[in-house]
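Bench notes, afternoon.
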Amino acid sequence: MDTEAVIFGKWNNHGNNMNLRLSAQDSQKVDEEVELVFKHGNKHVRTVNDISTLKQVIKFTAEHNVKGFNTEKAHKAIQLYNTYHKINMRPKEALKGWKLDKKIEN
């Protein structure tokens, strides 16, 4: 199974200090080629199958103390989403439209 991922950074959730990441991996479902998932360590947190869920994942990461998370990583997550959903969402404009651009530390 091929996997492409954007590692947002380390997040300490009740003593579990692991990476939060958005991963695109070959889906094991018959009708889908790729599945985007938000993970904490190896734990599946959410499937990211639409733009509103991508926004929620980036917002969650921005609002929690995720060490290493910055605008560049948020842009990479949007680009990863674009690649696998075959759309052309502009990362900078998306973050600004979602009012997350100022919440994310550079």
